[in-house]
Amino acid sequence: MNKPRIDGSAGDADYGAIGGGYSRYRRPDPRIGEAIGTALGAARTVVNVGAGTGSYEAAHLDVTAVEPSAAMRAQRPAHLPRAVDAVAEHLPFPDDTFDAAMTTFSVHQWSDPAAGLREMRRVARGPVVVLTCDPATVRDFWLYAYAPLVLDTEARRYPAIRDIADALGGAVTVEPVPIPADCTDGFNEAYYGRPELLLDPGARQACSAWSFVDPATADRCAGHLRTALADGTWDARHAELRRRPHYNGSLVLVRAVPQ
């Protein structure tokens, strides 16, 4: 099991070090939020596990946020409820407390994803909704040509979709989530048609996989991309992505309901 971080992070990334700009670069995208809302259905009470700064916590829901990182809890806007300091693997709630449970871009950071998912299933009477990336397709993104170690890290961290489904049990559906061209949630694939934005160190820092390579390696990767943009190589290969209204990448929504 991973050792807890100084700021209380229980996962594999140190958000005390990398989470300072998260609320600037990782703003919830309303179209992704709509997909999450559809998956939650008629739920009114929802536990958001690994809630971070409060992304995708819809105002009309009664949300209980769970977040172990002090740095992330501190960035939650004042209008959102204070987050409970706890980890996914040990949720401090009785069985069937909530109508539903959700987690977004978090399950890959847990020390024991299967245990955390079982806890979500335990405390939710209805759907459990997981926004995650399919590790089988992470390396298909163009960034792999410039930052292979970063996406290798991503692919290793994300649990297999089959493992998520097995941990949750019940009736499980897996739906791809189209990424809009102007996506406001700055994960790597959100910049599929705006590669220049990944030259911003703050944007890279807000994608936790970049923190698993040393700074010199990260700078070299960004340098390769900068050169490809300057000499036209990137556009020669991928210019059509700049015109796509959305991109179907590794982002998926897993929904499980008890049978």
TrEMBL record:
Pfam family for this entry, one:
Methyltransf_11
Q: Which domain of life is it from?
A: Bacteria
Decide whether keyword Methyltransferase is in the record: yes
Sorted alphabetically, the Gene Ontology BP terms of this entry are: methylation
Q: Where is the Methyltransferase type domain?
A: 48-125
Q: State one molecular function term (GO).
A: methyltransferase activity
Keyword vocabulary terms for this entry: Methyltransferase, Transferase
Protein name per the record: Class I SAM-dependent methyltransferase
Organism for this UniProt entry: Streptantibioticus silvisoli
